Amino acid sequence: MSSHLSADRPAAQPPGHGSVEALISQARRLRGDVDAVRRDSQESAADPRGRWQRALYDLALHQLTDLDAHLAQLRDGPAPAPRPGSLLSRVGSAEWNLLTDEAEWSGELFHILGRDPGSVPLSLDELPSLVLTEDRPKLTAMVTDCLVDARPIDGEFRVVHPDGTARTVHMMGEPVLDTDGSTASMWAVLRDVSELRRSQRVLSETRDSLRHPALPPWHGLLRFPDEGRPGLDLAAAHLPSTPATGLRSRYGGWYDACPHSDDGETLLAVGDFEAPGTEAHGAAVLIGALRGLALAGTRPALLGERLAALLEATALPPVRDAVYCGYRPRTRTLTWTDASGPVPLLFRGGTGRGLSGQAGPSGRSGLSGQAEATLEADDLLLLHTGAPGPAAVEHLLSLAPRLTGAGSAQDVVRVVTRELGEFPCRQDACVLVARVTP
Questions:
Q1: pLDDT tens digits, residue range 91-130?
Q2: Is the dihedral of CA 202, 208, 214, 216 positive or negative?
Q3: In the β-sheet with 265-273, what is the strand arrangement from edge to edge?
Q4: How many CB atoms sit inside 10 A of residue 139's CB?
Q5: Fold adopted by 89-192
Q6: Are strands 333-337 and 345-348 parallel, antiparallel or unpaired?
Q7: Which pTM does this prediction carry?
Q8: What are the residues facing 433 on neighbouring strands?
Q9: What is the architecture, at CATH level 2, of domain 213-436?
């Protein structure tokens, strides 16, 4: 069957050889100018703004190099192999005939989707089997809209290669109608845009590093342990409320990670003050009391009650929505309270879920009001105050593949704070991330 993606497809005539050569010359001159400006830049690579500018220059150079390669393809025909490291390194095409149930793929599409070039092209019904589970509804909706409502396809999804790696694919297509106006086939162009999206994320994260929210004032009084704790890679952040939230205290949330007893166990905790207007020293007093109780061996299930009794003797408001967890590195055992606060979120192997108050994955009931679970290397634990809300929590769970693929706990915190920052009317929020180290 003839492909609707071939030169036979009705389209504007390509530019002449001379016109393409002129475009190539312009693109190469522009690339040289950008590279010269980048090399002459005096910004320090150690400075956040310097890193952001360097990332932006690098992305522009990558894209100009790809533009040069694409223009060269217009002049010379398809290249035998993509340039290594290209942001748009692969482009493939396909057509699915709905009348004969035949599929025709270009050779490059097999590589994009991780299929053996000698295998049979997959039908539209079989195509979702290559796609990450959470992206399958998106692909199904795009194809259905195209076939039923004749809507063009323009979207992205992730495919899993046989070696387990995930690649991001951008798909564009449209239905092909027969003489009576019904859909006869569907054609599409697919591109591997994994490197492009990675570069854009780096640029976004370096830009965001220029506007991280200020640390709460109590952070300097009781410093979060930058060196981490045994068996854990730790990071945390405070997100101040947005102006639309009204009178909520700017520093109503708090977090801490500290030694628990003398056997290497770590206490992880986050929480909120019940009332606005709490001064910075109040958080310092509260965290100091919490650390004292932890060093005395108070179990997580009893911390809330003991802490409330101590606070009654002060002018501080009570704590609400607190979560207390204990982690023993030798056995990788996590215990957490059955409290009214938000449940801890556990991310493992590209999926995420909330830990219930009774038991977690491979977990069991422990002391009254306490549950236990055995964690694994590279598991990711995320504690948060109640301020993000259910919708934000669901959004964080949907980011599981991205969070578990992050290089460090600090990288996870950057992603989480950026994503939570997009939610309107956000109250004060604190997040604490702990990654189990091998």
A1: 788 999 988 888 999 888 998 999 999 999 999 999 999 9
A2: negative
A3: 253-260, 265-273, 319-328, 333-337, 370-374, 364-365
A4: 23
A5: Beta-Lactamase (3.30.450)
A6: unpaired
A7: 0.51
A8: 235, 382
A9: 4-Layer Sandwich (3.60)
